[in-house]
């Protein structure tokens, strides 16, 4: 059984060992999250304007989150590589989990945006309205021309 003093000495060593063993796994998860958001943004960007329902602001926000997390990760990896194993880590799994949550939130914001509903009835109604307006204008023009012809015939008959 360890004494209180021994546990105090052992705790930081165990912490550094655990961080060292789990670091690669968490870095891999972070990279996968970044890649998922990047693929989603790229797929949306390739759509033409009529099919896309995400704004440029949404895409730029997600891209900025990705860039920020990538920069943070690269900086921390360099710091961690410079440290010896017996020194407390600069890149912790807790920090990576926080950054992964930011990346997931950016992806969730993009994926949760619903496509605007456009029903076929509304589209047909709009088409019919424009067709009806055009037809009405044509009929009005024909009525005006025929009424003006009738008045000239009536004038000739009266003479």
Q: Can you tag this structure with a few keywords?
A:
159 residues; mainly alpha; 4 helices; 0% strand
Write up this protein.
The chain starts with a helix and ends with a helix. The protein is mostly helical and 159 residues long. It folds into 2 domains: 8-116, no CATH class; 117-159. The model has no long low-confidence stretch (mean pLDDT 82). It has helices at residues 4-46, 56-82, 93-112, 120-158. α1 packs antiparallel against α2. The protein is 81% helix and 0% strand. The radius of gyration is 34 Å and the shape is rod-shaped.
Count of alpha and pi helical runs: 4
Biggest β-sheet strands, sense, barrel? none
Terminal CA distance? 130 Å
Elements, N to C (H/E): HHHH
Gyration radius (Cα, Å) is 34 Å
Structural class: mainly alpha
Layout: helices, strands, pairs:
Blueprint lengths: L3 H43 L9 H27 L10 H20 L7 H39 L1
Helix pairs in contact: 1-2, 1-3, 2-3
Could you provide a short overview of the structure?
With 159 residues, the chain is an all-alpha fold. It has 2 domains: 8-116, no CATH class; 117-159. It has helices at residues 4-46, 56-82, 93-112, 120-158.
């Amino acid at each position: 059984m360890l004494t209180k003093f021994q546990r105090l000495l052992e705790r930081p060593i165990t912490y550094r060992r655990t961080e060292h063993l789990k670091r690669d796994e968490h870095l891999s998860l972070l990279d996968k999250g970044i890649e998922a958001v990047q693929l989603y943004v790229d797929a949306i960007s390739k759509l033409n304007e009529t099919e896309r329902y995400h704004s440029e602001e949404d895409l730029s926000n997600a891209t900025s989150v990705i860039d920020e997390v990538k920069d943070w990760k690269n900086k921390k990896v360099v710091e961690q590589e410079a440290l010896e194993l017996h020194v407390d880590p600069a890149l912790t799994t807790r920090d990576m989990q926080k950054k992964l949550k930011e990346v997931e939130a950016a992806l969730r914001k993009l994926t949760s945006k619903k496509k605007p509903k456009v029903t076929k009835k509304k589209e047909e109604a709009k088409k019919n309205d424009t067709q009806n307006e055009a037809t009405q204008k044509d009929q009005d023009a024909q009525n005006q021309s025929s009424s003006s012809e009738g008045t000239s015939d009536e004038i000739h008959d009266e003479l």
